[in-house]
Amino acid sequence: MNHLDALESEAIYILREVAGQFKNPVLLFSGGKDSTLLIHLALKAFYPLPLPFAVMHIDTGHNFEEALTFRDELVKKYNLRLIVRKVEDTIRLKNLEEPGGKFPSRNALQSYTLLDAISEFQFDAIIGGGRRDEEKARAKERIFSVRDSSGAWLPHNQRPELWDLYNGHISAGEQIRVFPISNWSELDVWQYIRREKIELPSLYFAHERTCIRFNSRLVAMSDYIVPDAEDVIITTSVRYRTVGDMTCTAAVQSTAQTIEEVIDEIEQSALSERGETRMDDQISDAGMEDRKLKGYF
Amino acid sequence: MDVLRFITAGSIDDGKSTLIGRLLLDTGNIKSDILESVKEDNDDVNLAFITDGLRAERQAGITIDVAYKYFTTPNRKFIITDAPGHFQYTKNLVTGASGVDAMIILIDATIGISSQTRRHSMVASFLGIRNIVVAINKMDVSGYDQSVYNSIKNSYSEIAIRLNLDQVTYIPISALKGDNVTRHSYHMPWYTGPALLQFLEACKPEIKADDGRLSVTVQYVAGNNIFGRLVSGTIKRGQNVVVYPGRITSIVKEIINNYIIVEEAFTGHDICVQLELQGTLMRGATITGIGEGPEYSNEFEADLCWLDELSEVVLNRDYILRIGANEVVSQVKEIISKRYIETLGYSNDQKSVSVNEFARVIIHTSSNIAYDNYSQVHETGRGILIDITTNNTSGALIIR
Ligand SMILES: Nc1nc2c(ncn2[C@@H]2O[C@H](COP(=O)(O)OP(=O)(O)O)[C@@H](O)[C@H]2O)c(=O)[nH]1
Prior knowledge:
The complex is a heterodimer.
Chain A: H1 3-21, E1 25-28, H2 33-46, E2 54-59, H3 65-77, E3 82-86, H4 87-94, H5 110-121, E4 125-127, E5 144-147, E6 175-178, H6 186-196, E7 207-214, E8 217-220, E9 233-240, E10 251-253, H7 259-268, H8 273-277, H9 287-293
Parallel strand pairs in A: 1-2, 1-4, 2-3, 4-6
Antiparallel strand pairs in A: 5-6, 7-8, 7-9, 9-10
Helix pairs in contact in A: 1-2, 6-7
Chain B: E1 2-9, H1 16-26, H2 32-37, H3 55-60, E2 67-73, E3 76-82, H4 90-97, E4 102-108, H5 115-127, E5 131-137, H6 146-162, E6 168-172, H7 196-202, E7 215-222, E8 225-232, E9 235-236, E10 240-244, E11 248-257, E12 260-262, E13 264-265, E14 270-276, E15 286-289, E16 295-306, E17 319-323, E18 326-339, E19 346-347, E20 358-371, E21 382-387, E22 393-398
Parallel strand pairs in B: 1-3, 1-4, 4-5, 5-6
Antiparallel strand pairs in B: 2-3, 7-8, 7-15, 8-14, 9-13, 10-11, 10-15, 11-12, 11-14, 16-20, 16-22, 17-18, 17-21, 18-19, 18-20, 21-22
Helix pairs in contact in B: 4-5
Residues 10, 12-18, 48, 62-63, 85, 137-138, 140-141, 174-176 of chain B line the site of guanosine-5'-diphosphate (GDP).
């Protein structure tokens, strides 16, 4: 079987397991390529019916305009049920401290908003677009990942997970995070997007943007970051490899305007996807692991 | 390009992590920022750190849970599961080894076969893994000596015979130096077999045959739409089928595959079907062909591997048995025999089965359940036992 067929089949099977095993699942959707891919896989999995669950955006407020527009268009086109919960509201309600500094990322605070939304809607399964090749901690996570009542991942006490027999039994208060595209690489995602003619936000293709250069990374100028006088501001042709909170997602210099060209660039890139574009993982070697222990995706 | 899944197994320090690091590095699958992050103070790359992901694991210097790694060559996408070597994590090894096409068992040439080697081989035998590679590692420290290789090969072949592992390939390697990993080693001209990567590229994945008996695992039902995977055989519109549980006959009205209404679908397809059926059918049902039955009973024998460290098997206690998407209440009625790592033989010891142990058991179910022999349809010939109080996946079963 062709590798894209095999990966697609695995993902569809997992999504159907979620629909079959849980009362109230939700799919996390940000307008980024991985969660967009998930929606397309789910559309295929449940055709001719509409998606049997809602999609939810945990909105940091630091959005790329293009991603938001894309999100709303996709929701409209496929008649999806969209829930939006804002980190801003969590900060206000819980009296949390707004992150400060040059790049005040609300990325880590998303966990609070996510956990609140999970208890508000009583979600029992939360489908996410995490991939094992993104990061070392993700590489260890099961497809059905049991989280305790505080949303924490228990990496040393994971359930055995055999064959495709995903065990979704949980006790009250627990939840399962589900990762249908665990086994996809960045390249697989792009090849599949090409094959299935999936539309993405324009951010993923080369465009002119004004950025500041920070630690050899390009961070888009926006109202959310606080540049210093000595920062070098340049306008250049860039694209994004990942799309998240504007304050912690870096662009890459690129002239790739088509999927073909993007695939060529990825194949030649010397840097990994998160390494090149995520500032939040750079903080410490165990950045992702720490966030997962606190309920992160 | 197709997909091959394989697992590396070995005792602590046999060199698993180094080997995986070496495979990724030599096939150009490690990006420079990742390479930077695994450099030590003296600037040497520590190949093992590429897979030892969690902080606790780095601190302890061992792999605790299964890590998944990926690499591609022009012909294949490889999914590697790096499983822990420690005996207390055998359950994690079983997790990692379930569903793989090949297992690489690492043996440290300076130590030889250990009880871990026997344990890993037992897991391979239990799961019915066809392609086994015995990679004899650290040949660089053993002077690349053919007699070291031969002696380990000879001892292992006895294990292979006892465990019915009939396709074993022996490869002398140095994970650290790269000998016989992605290319042939000049240090061992006496070895004429394939290098490890060459073997993996040629290795046949578990093939699913379209001419097998028809079996659809029903995962989700909404109204008349039945969503499931055709795990074996071919299904045709208009065909007569039998639905379990209940053994009800019916006709296939419509098949949808990949957004299209089709006349027939084949093994591996994730389909949506509608049946000419009185009443509704539920998740867990199995759709089969006429007269080629699965077995349908409330009692069967199976091989069991216990995965739960909190409790051992309690006879006649209720567990949830899951086969495919079907779940029924069941009990372990009898322990027929146990199989020990030390001897690899069966014994009539009927003491309970605890974590990381293997046994032959009789399973009783509260209602009839459809199943196959593992050799006939893998998906309906294997299952798990779920603890009803902790919800843990406590046991793995193979019906053979
Ligand atoms: N000389 C030599 N040392 C090796 C070889 N493979 C691994 N090692 C060393 O053996 C030790 C354990 O290796 P590691 O990959 O961490 O083993 P693991 O516990 O099986 O993952 C490390 O110090 C490695 O550098 C080899 O082929 N030759």
